[in-house]
Design a protein that fits this description.
Elements: H1 3-48, H2 56-68, H3 73-87, H4 95-119, H5 126-131, H6 137-168, H7 170-184
Helix pairs in contact: 1-2, 3-4
């Protein structure tokens, strides 16, 4: 085989394989770019809402961690630790117990955000992630006031339904009739 034949085969191979390789490289780059964009979306949402852990955006971003960072074992490990901590909370805890759980969850979240930052080639310290972020105090005051109104409305609703249930109980109606007659000075029959 002479050199002209080899050059001819090389030209044919380059002509056929060049576009195929170009498409494969482009698709690979697009896939990496898309994966990074999804990770950035989750990371930015968590950073933006780190002081608003009960917001829909924050919870939604947390729920995407397992999907978009599934190739990062350390992040998934910390995420599972965070969800276990968050699940241990309850509306019936004392304020001190709730504060302890929230503080622990915030520290775990700072570790997770630190690992995410490393994965995305950002340099943040965990202390900056833990203490950083801003939320106007009026937002937390409004959220607390809203929660207090909901709790009061819930208690009022429970009291009313309990009262109505007692009123509709036939045995209880006889007791109510007798007590009202005693207060009127009449003798029950």
């Amino acid at each position: 085989m002479n050199s002209d034949t080899l050059v001819g085969f090389a030209i044919i191979a380059a002509t056929l394989l060049g576009p195929i390789l170009a498409v494969l490289v482009t698709r690979w780059n697009d896939s990496r770019r898309d994966q990074r964009a999804r990770k950035m979306f989750v990371f930015r949402a968590l950073m933006r809402t780190r002081r608003m852990p009960y917001s829909q955006e924050h919870v939604g971003a947390l729920n995407l961690v397992e999907v978009d960072f599934n190739d990062c074992a350390r992040i998934i490990e910390i995420f599972k630790e965070l969800t276990e901590c968050l699940k241990s909370g309850s509306p019936h805890l004392s304020s001190q117990e709730a504060e302890t759980i929230n503080d622990r969850a915030n520290r775990i979240k700072a570790r997770m955000l630190g690992e995410m930052a490393k994965n995305l080639h950002y340099k943040f310290g965990e202390i900056d992630l833990y203490e950083g972020g801003y939320i106007p105090s009026v937002w937390t005051a409004n959220a607390d006031a809203d929660r207090a109104v909901r709790d009061a409305a819930s208690q009022l609703f429970e009291m009313l339904t309990s009262h109505l249930a007692r009123q509709s109980d036939p045995n209880n109606q006889e007791t109510i009739r007798r007590s009202s007659m005693k207060s009127d000075g009449k003798s029950p029959e």
